[in-house]
What we know:
This is PilZ domain-containing protein. The protein is an alpha+beta fold.
Amino acid sequence: MSENRREFFRVIFNQALNGKVSVYGGNFLPVEIYDVSAGGLVFSSVLNIPLGESVRCSFEILDSAFMLEGSIVRKATGVDVVKCGVEFSVDQGTSSELFKQLNHYQIRNRKSFLTD
C-alpha cells in the first residue's frame, strides 16, 4: 500500500485551471493545472521538463494571482502531453495566503454543490 506523504490538503479542480509556467527563466507557456495545494501543484504541458528543473508557476484562484517558484518532482508522460508535479519553494507568508485562498475555494464549491 502506498503511503500518502502530502503535508497539505489538495484541491482537485473539476475543470482544469488555465495557468502559465516558465522554464529556464524564459517566456511563460500556457498549461492546464489539475490540482493545487499550499505545497505544490500538478499541471500538463506539451513540454517535457526534466525532473529537478526549476520552474515559475503563474495562476489565479478566486481573483488572487499567484507567481510561485518550485521544481519538478514528478512526471508522467502521455501520448501528447506530460503531467508534471511541482513542489513549491515559497516563504511562509505566501504559503499561508495560498492555503487561505484554497480553503475559500473549497468552501465556495461545497456551498454551490449543496444548493444545486
